[in-house]
Amino acid sequence: MDDRTKIYKEALTHPIFEIVSQAAKNLAIDSYVIGGFVRDFILNRNSKKDIDILAVGNGIDLALEVSKLIPNHPQVQVFKNYGTAMLRYDDIDIEFVGARRESYHFESRKPVVENGTLEDDQNRRDFTINALALSLKSKDFGRLIDPFNGIKDLNNKIIRTPLDPDITYSDDPLRMMRAIRFATQLDFKIDEKSLNSISKNHKRLEIISGERIVEELNKILMTPTPSKGFLLLYQTGLLNLILPELTALNQVEEIEGHKHKNNFYHTLEVVDNICKTSDDLWLRWSALLHDIGKAPTKRFSKKQGWTFHGHEFLGGKMVKKIFIRLHMPLNHKMKFVQKMVTMSSRPIVLSQKEVTDSAVRRLIFDAGENVEDLMTLCEADITTKNPSKFKKYHNNFKLVRQKIIEVEARDHIRNFQPPISGEEIMQIFGLPPCREIGSIKESIKEAILEGIISNDYNAAYQFMLKKAQEMGLEIINK
């Protein structure tokens, strides 16, 4: 038996497949399980919690018939505009679609859709490894239908399009991102003809929405080694369309024997490093963007050599522009990334000096509940290849972490709230909101952070009275 027609009944042991088979028989249509479920089963990757069912007929009708055959009749979500339906059974999302053929207009990735055969539907698939289908017909239940030798590509770890890649990528340019994402997720190589086609067609990505692009970027960032994907994005020209702020870092200049490091490749190392210690998507975004302010702030002087003064502050401002441009969430997630980028050098500077209590208090105050994330980012930022320097930096960070624990236990700076509120200060001195009230509040905060007074009410009250006396204020209400 040809590998491409092998029987894979062991993939179809879940009861849903027999139910779909019976429902399709009731409707006198053929049905298949297709795509990622089949691919992942053959790769022994049991990561998917969803199944795509292809009906050579009406997919919505098949979903409704399946629901009738399942006890408790799970609700069917119908998406008429797309001709698809979905239901949830045994914690698995099952999507139903009718076989179709597609044709595209050059200026849009939205296809003109017509009813089609199984062959038509497999032809329109993005990659050979995603065109694999298993029959759910009773006469050949579990038979693999593999018209493009997808099994061979799985074995050889190759990403290849079923048809001419120029047509595949021009029709739906998002497939270029998907090719790179799958290559990164599965640790596969992109077929040379296909990779050249991505480079040739990369500007077609301009018709794709920021939301769809970011969805693929997020999946690349959530892999164990995102640098593989970002290098492919850079190599093909896609990254310069998506994140020119990042590609601007890929240059090294030398003046009078002074050379700075390549901050693009350094950034990819930092991203890979942080993936070893955190699976937080937004912390990974922070690592990706932490040095974007370096290209526009780069300066050379004979006295100092290469400098990047203020790159963290500028980088934080650039984060918002990127999030807006790519239609990313402008909420607490963006603010978190901004904070991490803006503060990305603080612990590093701290670790290179004597670690004072006041400096640690300020770090905890400014980072707040994100101080651990910030430390994780900064440890990932150590990419030196010098073993003694690497060990020294990590040991210094251990000292900073220990100091954070000690200072926080004693001074309770994290999520700091002033021991005396502005309202109480106004009441004591009989004043409305004014510059003097703000000055007293700020002085109390600074005194606590500098260790002049402890972080408690009595110490703050006595300090307030002293400060007010210096300003010529009198107590009205004790």
UniProtKB/TrEMBL annotation:
Cofactor(s) the record lists: Mg(2+)
Ranges of residues in domain Poly A polymerase head: 32-160
Signal peptide bounds: none
SUPFAM superfamilies assigned: Nucleotidyltransferase, Poly A polymerase C-terminal region-like
Gene Ontology MF: a single term: RNA binding
Residue ranges occupied by any tRNA nucleotidyltransferase/poly(A) polymerase RNA and SrmB- binding domain in the UniProt entry: 187-248
Example GO BP: RNA repair
Keyword terms, alphabetized: ATP-binding, Magnesium, Metal-binding, Nucleotide-binding, Nucleotidyltransferase, RNA repair, RNA-binding, Transferase, tRNA processing
Sequence ranges assigned to domain HD in this UniProt record: 264-347
PANTHER family the record matches: MULTIFUNCTIONAL CCA PROTEIN (PTHR47545:SF1)
Name of this chain's protein: tRNA nucleotidyltransferase (CCA-adding enzyme)
